[in-house]
UniProtKB/TrEMBL annotation:
Family matches, as InterPro entries: ACAS_N, AMP-bd_C, AMP-bd_C_sf, AMP-binding_CS, AMP-dep_synth/lig_dom, ANL_N_sf
Organism: Mycobacterium botniense
NCBIfam families given in the database record: PRK00174.1
Domain annotation Acetyl-coenzyme A synthetase N-terminal: ranges: 7-61
Protein name, UniProt field: Propionyl-CoA synthetase
A UniProt-annotated Pfam family: ACAS_N
Coiled-coil ranges per UniProt: none
Gene for this chain: prpE
Domain AMP-dependent synthetase/ligase: residue ranges: 65-451
Transmembrane parts of this sequence: none
UniProt GO MF annotations: propionate-CoA ligase activity
């Protein structure tokens, strides 16, 4: 350690000598051709990591641990309170399952570079399917099971998979959600040349699916396939495409490579999360989100740890003690969850009485991400659990934390409300609109000076230009995170929220533009805006403001509300938690007719945003204020 402390030394080195830093980190991975170069700048701003390296990510996650004599170690613990199932898979067992499923994919014609869409709940088959793709060099694209047919269809049409893998159903605490009809509807909605050739179905007893001609039953077919080995891929080859909400309704396909991702994840497990071989690690998220990709599936297995796959909720499956039960039962060393889950537990069990029923002596750290860890939730969890509660900030695009507290490298003092400091390779700067850095303590747009470290997105699927326009155009030379915030005098970052049209609902990211498109399609709606409003549990929930077409003012507001809510559930999914709709007389606009969304959002957040001089009719704004801030006015409340 140098004079600065281990973190500061490592961070400084990563920026001064990225090649040296990441080539050293690359030694944690088994390569079939060891890279001699780290950063390839030749196609900047499309940077590539380890351009001459070759490896297989599945081999690194599974086979190499078996080859090293750890086949009996538990790789995956499946705990499903919603079905009453518990299963353990050793590294040897899961390697065999993955090799067989990879064989099935090969039999179905899937090869290197082909896409496979995976639409599944939290069952081991989802993990097996992802790793099987990695094994044969196919590119997986996992779609979160809560998305409705139209969203699934948009992702299939963009990814053009050869095969789609799904389960017959998912199980929510209150209902069984049939997945196969969603898949069938999505496939029918897209052009025939974009449709997958086969659908592989995991039949679950809670709601078996009706099979059609091109459907393949997972369990029947797998017994007849031969296991296949790992193929070599270039470090720069794609491992997966993960769609996330952009500022328009069209999702963005974030592209992840193999080599950079493996290196970055392995570095993060040791240095941020302090997890190594044999440790039990639990990420309570969903494989459909980036947190699930990185920290349920790839990272823990890459370092030879045991990962917990939990098919349940923090509350209601069956109670607010579920997290503490799982931690105690499997001797979990660290849990990674979203603050919203802690707030839900706090609501049901304010004194955390449930935790006292379990032995949590092996539990060392609680990590959170997905949204800002608000200081109240931080304090509540810290006081009751007696372990460090550690925020980390990142996004689908980056794949691993931009800012974190490097617990494995050098635990830094925690400042409530801050995810701590930038991680190696992330040269974080807070900029104003003129692309100038602002002084510490001043709010601005949080950006990362290019190039970004390994593991971060390489482009958007099939759309380099959109990648450039979305992330690189606003602040030349920097990656735009879309988040606003500030750095304090100690270099701690504070991430205060999105600066664009994205909202964060229970740690899930949605585009208000996509929600608006659904509302605008209703025949009674002339125009609309969707904003995120504060919610005590979910952080934000969407609130739709709709202006009716003239002549339809007599529409029954309750009926309209029900129709709009149903439309959003059907078109995007229940997981949007869209429940609030207000019919308003008008929306504030500029004289050129542009709706002043930023201003509306600021007022709803209780922020003081200057009213632009170009506003068409200030009276419209005044009439809207009480709807946006219901406690301060007497005007009609939202019909929710
Ligand atoms: N498939 C189908 N439907 C789903 C789904 C899935 N995978 N996930 C959620 N839904 C549905 C739910 O059934 C619910 O439908 P309903 O309106 O008919 O009840 C709706 O989407 C909203 O679900 P959810 O967000 O789970 O809200 P909730 O009120 O049931 O539970 C929390 C609240 C806080 C417990 C829950 O949001 C939660 O566990 N959050 C943690 C999220 C998380 O881990 N995020 C990590 C991202 S890093
Ligand atoms: P996603 O791409 O779905 O992971 O969402 C990423 C977005 O969630 C970020 O751009 C932030 O707006 C928000 N976010 C995630 N983690 C944090 C965090 N720890 N603190 C603040 N915001 C966060």
């Amino acid at each position: 350690m140098g004079p600065l402390g281990a973190y500061a030394d490592e961070y400084a080195r990563s920026l001064a000598d990225p090649d040296g830093f990441w080539l050293k980190a690359a030694r944690a991975i088994d390569w079939t051709r060891m890279p001699r170069r780290a950063l390839d700048r030749s196609r900047a701003p499309f940077y590539r990591w380890f351009p001459d390296g070759k490896l297989n990510t599945c081999y690194n996650a599974l086979d190499r641990h078996v080859a090293a004599g750890h086949g009996d170690r538990i790789a995956l613990l499946y705990d499903s309170p919603v079905t009453g199932t518990k299963q353990r898979y050793s590294y040897a067992e899961i390697t065999d399952e993955v090799a067989r499923f990879a064989g099935l994919l090969v039999d179905l014609g899937v090869g290197k570079g082909d896409r496979v869409v995976i639409y599944m709940p939290m069952v081991p088959h989802a993990v097996v399917a992802m790793l099987a793709c990695a094994r044969i060099g196919a590119i997986h694209s996992v779609v979160f099971g809560g998305f409705a047919p139209k969203e699934l269809a948009a992702r299939i049409a963009d990814a053009r998979p050869k095969v789609l893998v799904c389960a017959s159903c998912g199980i929510e605490p209150s209902r069984v959600v049939e997945y196969k009809p969603v898949v069938d509807e999505a496939i029918l909605a897209i052009a025939p040349d974009c449709r997958p050739e086969h659908v592989v179905v995991v039949q679950r007893p809670q709601a078996p699916a009706t099979m059609t001609a091109n459907d393949v039953d997972w369990s029947q077919s797998i017994s007849q396939t031969r296991p296949v080995g790992c193929v070599d891929v270039a470090a720069t080859d794609e491992l997966y495409v993960l769609y996330t909400s952009g500022t328009t309704g069209r999702p963005k396909g974030v592209v992840r490579d193999n080599g950079g991702y493996a290196v970055a994840l392995a570095w993060s497990m040791a240095n941020i999360y302090d997890i190594g071989p044999g440790d039990v690690w639990w990420t309570a998220s969903d494989v459909g989100w980036v947190v699930g990709h990185s920290y349920i599936v790839y990272a823990p297995l890459l370092v030879g740890a045991t990962t917990v796959l939990f098919e349940g909720k923090p509350v209601g499956t069956p109670d607010a003690g579920a997290f503490w039960r799982v931690i105690s039962e499997y001797q979990v060393k660290a849990l990674f969850t979203a603050p919203t889950a802690l707030r839900a537990i706090k609501r049901d069990d304010p004194h955390m009485a449930e935790a006292a029923k379990y032995d949590l002596s092996r539990f060392q750290t609680l990590f959170t991400a997905g949204e800002r860890l608000d200081p109240q939730t931080y304090q509540w969890a810290t006081d009751r659990l007696g372990v460090p509660v550690v925020d980390n900030w990142w996004q689908t695009e980056t794949g691993w934390p931009i800012a974190a507290n490097p617990r494995g490298l050098e635990p830094l003092p925690i400042k409530p409300g801050s995810p701590t400091v930038p991680m190696p390779g992330y040269d974080v700067r807070v900029l104003d609109e003129q692309n100038t850095e602002v002084p510490s303590g001043t709010h601005g747009s949080i950006c990362v000076k290019l190039p970004m470290p390994p593991g971060t997105l390489t482009t958007l699927w099939g759309d380099d230009e959109r990648y450039r326009a979305s992330y690189l155009a606003q602040h030349p030379g920097y990656y735009l995170t879309g988040d606003g915030g500030y750095l304090d005098a100690d270099g701690y970052l504070y991430v205060m929220g999105r600066t664009d049209d994205i909202i964060n609902v229970a740690g899930h990211r949605f585009s208000t533009g996509a929600l608006e498109a659904v509302l605008a399609a209703h025949p009674a709606v002339a125009e609309c805006v969707v904003i995120g409003v504060r919610d005590a549990i979910k952080g934000q929930v969407p609130h739709g403001l709709v202006v009716l077409k003239s002549g339809v003012e007599t529409t029954d507001p309750e009926k309209l509300r029900a129709e709009l809510i149903a439309a959003v559930r059907h078109e995007i999914g229940a997981v949007t938690s869209f429940q609030q709709v207000s019919v308003v007389e008008g929306l504030p606009k500029t004289r050129s007719g542009k709706i002043l969304r930023k201003l509306i959002r600021a007022i709803a957040d209780g922020r003081d945003e200057p009213v632009p001089a170009t506003i068409e009719d200030p009276a419209v704004l005044e009439r809207l204020r009480p709807v946006l801030q219901p406690s301060t006015g007497t005007a009609p409340r939202p019909c929710a």
